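Team,

Forwarding the record for the chain on the shared tracking sheet. I've put the sequence and predicted structure together so nobody has to dig through attachments.
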Amino acid sequence: MTPRDGLNHPAIGGTVGGMFRDAAIGSPDEVAVRDGSVSLTYRDFNARVNKLTAALHDRGLSKGDRVALLSENCIDYVTVLMACAKGGFVAACLNWRQTRRELDGSIALTEPALLFVSSDFLDRCPEEVPQVVMGEPFEQLLAGRDDAEPEVEVESEDGLIILYTSGTTGTSKGALISHRAMIARGLLMRADWSIRRSDGFIAWSPLFHMASADPTFATLTQGATVSVLAGFDPAGIVEALTCHDVGWMVLMPGMIERLAEELEQRNAPLRRVAAAGCMANLVPTEQISRISRLLNAPFLNSFGSSETGIAPASGNWIAPGEDPGDLGKRQNSSCEIKLVGEDGMPVSDGAVGEICLKSPLLFSGYLNDPEATAKAFRDSWYHMGDAFYRDTSGRLHFADRKKYLIKSGGENIYPAEIELLLRNTPGISDAVVVKRIDDRWGEVPVAFVVAETPGLSRDDVLDALKGKIARYKLPKDIHLIGPEEIERNPTGKIRRDLLEKRAQQTADAEKDATT
């Protein structure tokens, strides 16, 4: 046998289910999952997972079949995830924020053999898909089942989980993530963020997002505790922070202030937090310094996606209590990156280019969408569709999504640069910058701004930007709006298309009024 002959051997790579089994053997009495007053040790949780795996096989499911989930976070959700990992099934994590029409599309794409659903979402499920309702029907499914380890030959490149991802207007795509990719994601988090094997995770953000799914799998393969919350619950999060050490404390924009207030009111002694936050570009700097000081944890200056995990640019953080003046990012370990221009050739330092990646953390492709997969994987690289530039010290600076680029009079304008300045302006709580067609310049930027304090004027917004960016980047129109007017799609992304339409209609109406 030559070395090449052994490349596809099942022993190469390992599996999430096998590593979870071994964690249960090594730490049987440690708490695996907790949800409020309910806690399960690794011994008990592993037995529960094995019973569900046996039940799924008894119902006729076989390796490669897809098992859909439509539920808020709960212990049974995590049980289904780990049963899929052991039984060779693929967990399709449906977004419960979607409408019935959108869910129909996601389910049709996935073609699940079985759907686990919360009673709260039954009215959005197609009747033709076999269902198990969380709660008593779930318990009946497990009753009397054997808790022996399943005898299934799962391999590293087999699919583990499907996370749905989309742009701001398109239908959802199903990103298929393998055991290999999920294991690599856990290893990279521990290596680059100094997460220890004993550090747990608080799964408060939806498990249909990588921000909860990835660290949940990583935690359960290393023998630590996952605290499950049904949603953002500041009191529940603080309670978990007092009970066990935490590796990555996921924090999203719009929620940091509420958690900070809870921490200040409770003033409870916290356990260790290795790292907190994500994507510092989206968070006002004063919130970064406040929450990192309260948690005594560095704030992650991260960048990643469902398709890539935390790679490629999540290799550094902001020290606790520090007010960052620069959000330059560091490349992660365990990946290769390059920045390319429109011609596909590498760009020089300081020039903006699309970030491309090679990494064991990468997903396997988009389910049943060979065209989208081929577009993303080309020229031996994965093309992310995000624009960065690299400075002479090697740091990576986020410019924007390529598709949000504004071409104005031959100049490139990246909305994220303007949005960051506005979000860090006193009196402004949020801002979105979009493009508008212009007879003279081709396209111009328009800002939608949410005022934090009353009395903010359009001139105040412009004054906050003048002298900080080139004049051609200054918004040509400013809309002062309420926070509810920034609509988001089911995956939480801002519906920029709606704001662009509104900006264009306003400009057209004003033009008609003057003619």
